[in-house]
Amino acid sequence: MDRGIQLKIEKTVVGILESADMADTTEYKVRKLAGEKLNINLSETHYKKFVRNIVENFLKSRQDEEEQEQAAEEAEVEAEQKVEAEVEAEAEAEVEAEAEAEDEEEEEESPVKKQKKNKKKKKIEVSKKASQAGELQEATIDDNGDIIICKLNSRRNVSIQEFRGNKLVSIREYYEKDGKQLPSSKGISLTIDQWTTFKKNIPAIEEAIQQLQ
């Protein structure tokens, strides 16, 4: 077969394949349409074999591209999940270290100082009863610089934090240190993507709660 004819057939067949609906395309249809465009009878044996090779190579190339794209997407998702896990782990480690430091400080305090501190805590809890138990509240800034959205009870807050440039939605228990309310290691921090997923599923959670009642 003349090389010039081969190039024309290959170009025509590939063009047809690129614009065709692969779910409804067959080798026969492609060969027939290419033959009509080129005014060549491609049903002859040597043409058939040549067209089949072109189709098979095209399909394999498409499959390879799809596999590469899928692998790249999976790698990107895995990298994002790894970053999210590292951010959450670092945030957890930071608040845990603060809690441990507080525990060490409390162990060194005298009984009299501890008694005074406990009394102060009780006063704070009593003064804040009106803003507890899930009532709608106005967002405030805590002593750690985080935005407190609401209080779930006297010690547990819903807050927005920023850690290494990443915003986190946190539900945590707080403790008092030097008259300041600070987050402890008891709780969970959600990245924005995790929070978005959780928020979308709130109706399903509410429905499940209703079913259990």
Word description of this protein:
The chain has helices at residues 3-19, 27-38, 45-108, 111-127, 192-200, 202-212, and strands at residues 140-141, 147-151, 156-163, 166-177, 180-191. The chain has 213 residues and is an alpha+beta fold. Strands 1-2-3-4-5 form a 5-stranded antiparallel sheet. A hairpin with a 5-residue loop joins strand 1 (140-141) and strand 2. It is elongated and about 90 Å long.
Content-based structural category: alpha+beta
Q: Which consecutive residue ranges, at least 5 long each, have pLDDT under 50?
A: 119-135
Q: H/E element string? A: HHHHEEEEEHH
Radius of gyration, rounded?
Answer: 33 Å
Mean pLDDT: 78
- Number of β-strand runs: 5
Share of residues in helices: 55-70%
Instruction: Characterize the overall form.
Output: elongated
Share of residues in strands? 15-25%
Distance between the termini: 78 Å
Total helical elements:
6
Side by side, the strands of the main sheet go: 1-2-3-4-5
* Main beta-sheet strand count, sense and barrel state: 5 strands, antiparallel
